[in-house]
Amino acid sequence: MIIAKFLSDAAWYFYLFWLPKYLYDARGFDTKAVGTFAWIPYAAAGVGCLAGGWFSSYLVRRQFSLDVARKLALGLSAAVMPLIILVPHVAVSWAIAIFSVAYFGQQSWSTLVMVLPADLLPRGVVGSVAGLVGFGGAMGGIAFGQLVGYLLDHGIGYPTVFTLAGIFHVVAFAVILAAIPAFRPQDVERRLRYQGAQ
């Protein structure tokens, strides 16, 4: 979960902090144009926060297993993220639309990842694990922010940066699938007790 959050928040922090600069540098926006259009992806992010959790809970209410519900919602959230690779190659109106989809998908993803500790672990360790997951995300944001600055300063353009950001969620989802083959909260709790973790 920490590695997955490290990867996905690397992309999120890039979107969050570099969108205005990208619109200035690569799309020729002035301050007024940024203020007019740049709020749209952030509004989509707010909707994504609600939609990801709602969809996963809806699946559980429809008698899907927790494993299927969480992984399907996470997978769909990750699946839209590579669209961001197209941003440097399309008209600005399409770029804003793609940013909106990416912001929506990222926040849907993030909501679901932060729920996983409560799904899988006993109450006594949920707060600690959630804190570590959040820490992993912050470190990913810092590391990728530094890398983006280095790449752009050394003549490697936005297309490369968007390509990297576009694959992070897919890799993060693969990490979750590999590390948590099946969501079985009771098994995890039993194993932690057996190993003396609780």
List the helices and strands and how they pair.
Elements: H1 2-25, H2 31-37, H3 39-61, H4 66-79, H5 92-120, H6 123-153, H7 158-179, H8 185-194
Any overview of this molecule?
- By secondary structure, this protein is mainly alpha-helical.
- The protein has eight helices and no strands.
- It has helices at 2-25, 31-37, 39-61, 66-79, 92-120, 123-153, 158-179, 185-194.
- α3 (39-61) runs parallel beside α5 and α5 (92-120) packs antiparallel against α6.
CATH topology: Growth Hormone, Chain: A
Query: How large is the radius of gyration?
Result: 18 Å
Percent strand equals under 5%
- Helix count from the secondary structure assignment: 8
State the end-to-end distance.
20 Å
Order of helices and strands: HHHHHHHH
The outline comes out as: globular
Which terms summarize this structure?
single chain; 198 residues; mainly alpha; Growth Hormone, Chain: A; 8 helices; 81% helix; 0% strand; disordered C terminus
What's the quick description here?
By secondary structure, the protein is an all-alpha fold. Helix content is 81%, strand content 0%.
